[in-house]
Amino acid sequence: MIACITLAMTLLAAPAIPGPVAVIPFTDNGKLISLRVRIGRSAPRVFTLDSGASASVIDSGTASELRMRANGSRLGTGAGAGKVRFAIFRDVSLALGGARWVARTTYGVSLNTVGTALREDGLVGSDLFFRYVVDIDYARHRLSLYEPKTFRYTHAGAAIPLTIAKHVPHAAVTIKVRGRAAEVRQLLIDSGSEDMVDDAVIATSTARKQVIATSGLGRSMRAYDGPIEWARIGPFTIRDLSGTSGGVPLLGSGVLRNFHVTFDYSRKRMYLAKR
Question: Given this structure, which CATH class describes domain 158-274?
Answer without folding.
Answer: mainly beta
